[in-house]
């Protein structure tokens, strides 16, 4: 595992965009496969879980429980956005540089003041605020628009997907990701942020894929 990570680090240093693209391609594929597997086992009360239960029992490989085209669509659309994330993380680091806690000059003062912590916390708060309220909406808009078009939906149906799926998913993410990104932006070095967030993204991709697939109009 250590060797694999070193190879990833070396590749990320020399070819960051391609490395992040391939990483997200794998992670998003895993997320979609997990979502389809959960549907097949009826872990979610959804259209696809009902579809999986109605497969032909006489076949050794039940029809309809796994759709490889769905995995390809979701993984490709998610991976296409990932290089933008590389530029964004680099920009936000330069735009809001973090400040270390100043040393206590007055030896009689054993505790740091609220002003000291506010000075350190303000750049971090700006990073999280901009990330969640400026960058993430673009990610969700791009992802679900790309998914809708790749599924053959018309403009009206794509708009409906954004309203019914993308916006609720974004609101759900706001209850979780600000805390994850606060850790990511404050203590994780730039080159390691993708592996760190990936441990959470694979499960989030499962949710996004499931939410998207259950919004697709069935003929």
N-to-C SSE series? Answer: HHHHHHHH
Can you tell me the overall shape?
Answer: globular
What proportion strand? Answer: under 5%
Given helix and strand content, the structural type is mainly alpha
InterPro entries: Mpv17_PMP22
Membrane topology: Multi-pass membrane protein
Keywords: Membrane, Transmembrane, Transmembrane helix
Pfam family, one: Mpv17_PMP22
What features would you describe in this structure?
- This protein is 74% helix and 0% strand.
- It is globular, with a radius of gyration of 21 Å.
- It has eight helices and no strands.
- The chain has one domain (15-53, 66-101, 111-213).
- By secondary structure, the protein is an all-alpha fold.
- Its main location: membrane.
- It is found in: Membrane.
Notable traits:
219 residues; mainly alpha; 8 helices; 74% helix
Provide a concise account of the structure shown.
InterPro entries: Mpv17_PMP22 (IPR007248). This protein is 74% helix and 0% strand.
Question: How is this fold's topology laid out?
Answer:
Blueprint: H1 2-14, H2 16-40, H3 47-53, H4 68-95, H5 114-150, H6 155-173, H7 177-187, H8 193-213
Helix pairs in contact: 1-2, 2-3, 2-4, 2-8, 4-5, 5-6, 5-7
């Amino acid at each position: 595992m250590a060797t694999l990570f070193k190879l990833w680090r070396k590749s990320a240093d020399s070819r960051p965009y391609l490395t992040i693209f391939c990483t997200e391609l794998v992670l998003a594929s895993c997320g979609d496969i997990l979502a389809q597997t959960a549907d097949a086992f009826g872990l979610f009360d959804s259209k696809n879980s009902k579809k999986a239960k109605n497969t032909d029992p006489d076949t050794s490989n039940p029809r309809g429980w796994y759709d490889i085209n769905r995995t390809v669509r979701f993984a490709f659309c998610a991976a296409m956005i990932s290089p933008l994330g590389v530029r964004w993380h680099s920009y936000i680091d330069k735009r809001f540089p973090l400040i270390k806690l100043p040393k206590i000059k007055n030896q009689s003062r054993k505790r740091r003041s609220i002003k000291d912590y506010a000075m350190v916390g303000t750049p971090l708060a700006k990073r999280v605020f901009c990330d969640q309220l400026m960058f993430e909406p673009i990610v969700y808009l791009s992802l679900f628009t790309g998914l809708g078009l790749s599924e053959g939906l018309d403009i009206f149906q794509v708009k409906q997907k954004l309203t019914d799926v993308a916006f609720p998913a974004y609101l759900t993410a706001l209850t979780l990701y600000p805390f994850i990104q606060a850790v990511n932006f404050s203590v994780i070095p730039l080159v390691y942020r993708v592996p760190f967030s990936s441990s959470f993204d694979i499960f989030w991709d499962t949710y996004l894929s499931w939410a998207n697939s259950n919004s697709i109009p069935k003929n």
